[in-house]
From TrEMBL:
Transmembrane segments: none annotated. Belongs to the leucine-binding protein family. The keyword Ligase does not apply. Residues 33-376 form the Leucine-binding protein domain. InterPro entries: Leu-bd (IPR028081), Peripla_BP_I (IPR028082). This is Leucine-binding protein domain-containing protein. It comes from Bradyrhizobium jicamae. Keywords: Signal. Gene3D superfamilies: 3.40.50.2300. Residues 1-24 form the signal peptide.
Amino acid sequence: MMKYLATASLLLASAHLATGAALAADQGITDTEIVIGDVEPLTGPPALLGVAASIGHKIAIAEANNAGGINGRKIKYVLEDDGYVTARTIQGVKKVIDVDKAFAMLGISGSGQSIAVMPVLEKAGIPTVIDVAPVKFLWEPPRKNVFVVGQSYEEGIIHLVNYLADKNPGKKWGLITQDDDYGITVRDGFDTVVKAKKLNVVYSGNYKKGQQDFSSDMLQLKESGAEVFLAGGIIGENIAMMKELEKLNIKPVVGIFWPGRVEPVLKLMGPAGDGLYAVDYVEPFAGPAGKAFLEKAKGLLSEAEMKGINRYSMTGYAAAKVLISAIERCGKQPTWVCTIAELEKTKNVETGIMAPINFGTGVRFSNQKLQIMQSDFSTLSFKPVN
């Protein structure tokens, strides 16, 4: 009898410990609330991206909360500013997980920052949907709890350079990239097409992150005779480059990447920014889908927040919709295990602002369809190229 009681006690203790561990893992939920966390650059030049992404999250969260929340629980959104500084990203993610006890994560700053914070996210096991910086390291190899909405930088550049190469056969090419992980991925995509199409590259440069003066770089570009130019900057860098080209009175065919495909950039470039080619996987605001998104946002955001919307608001909105839908499918008692399983089952989720989103068994990357757009300075907008 004593032996039986001892065994029963051990089983009861084991069950209690297992239950306690499950409860500890499934943090961030009360009877009325569920916490979703995010870390973005909200200050400094990259805030143009981070603020917009957080606004997209807020639109999806407000939409869900207005409809009663996730199975009756209202979503509490916890947002930290990393200033685009990697050490602060890591600190912010740890704070959101360990102090704010978030149930799930969205966003996660830039490419270098999201790469650096992977060990923290993986160790925690928290369901995470990244939407700001889709770089291959985040899903190759697949990480159990981390999902990425978007398209790879390499594929984006390959798509853009292929288009420009076909449109401008036999032309001389120039390229400049940032000296970091972002710049390496841009250059890798570019080199893929250079090799395949045997492009004539007459200028290839790098710039330091944060560089503001591009007079020497653009003078070298001019002297090289480049007729097609891939501007591998992000925001301030591309603005400075285009201003320098204007001063030098040269107008090569220019391609830019989606991190800088935001309307405020066109405004700051002035007429020099007219006719730029860009690639993206979200719809432009000038189209029907973009206009519908803005109309939806008006009813859910403040006037100040509306001014911060750009293409990153669309990527943020889409990722938040996918995450909220997965948690919702887990029913009244969502867990991390269930949420991750449901994220993996994501199939043909419509967001209205990009192609349907899909993941799958062992697939943590949505692989969105791309399209080419061209800038129109007179309307400060980008329009699809047929």
